[in-house]
Amino acid sequence: MRQASIELGVASLGAGLSLIGVVYAMEFPRDSAYLPTAVLSLLTLLLVMWATKAFVLVRQQRTEPLQFQKGEVRRFVVLVIASIALIAISPWLGFTTSFLIFVPLTGFLLGYRKWKWLVLTGVVFTALIYLVFIVLLSRPLPAELLMRLL
């Protein structure tokens, strides 16, 4: 199978799904609709650009056979499993704690070994999650497990 053909299919499917998300988000109340509509619109645009590039490559028959390397497949599987675990434990453990653990642990599992940067990235990402939801959107995050136990 050719790489550009797969990219065309994935990008087209993603663009269709994100466009459905845009339409759905536009039905939210006005204050709540702005951010999801903007993000999904940008995502749709980027996916359409990717699909267009892949389409051109397919039409010009300038595409290469898809070749997986063992390390790439492993990293992809690690990301999928870690993301599923994050989605499953976040409501129970709390979003702040989950991201504080998830970001450095995933980086480590993907092969990064500089703990200082892994921890710093986790702290910065967690702070951004907090700022976006609590400060910018004024939306509370679910209570952390530690706070519920106290």
From TrEMBL:
Residues 17-142 form the DUF1468 domain. The chain crosses the membrane at residues 35-56, 76-105, 117-138. Keywords: Membrane, Transmembrane, Transmembrane helix. Signal peptide: none annotated. It holds the Pfam family TctB. InterPro entries: DUF1468 (IPR009936). It comes from the Bacteria. This is Tripartite tricarboxylate transporter TctB family protein.
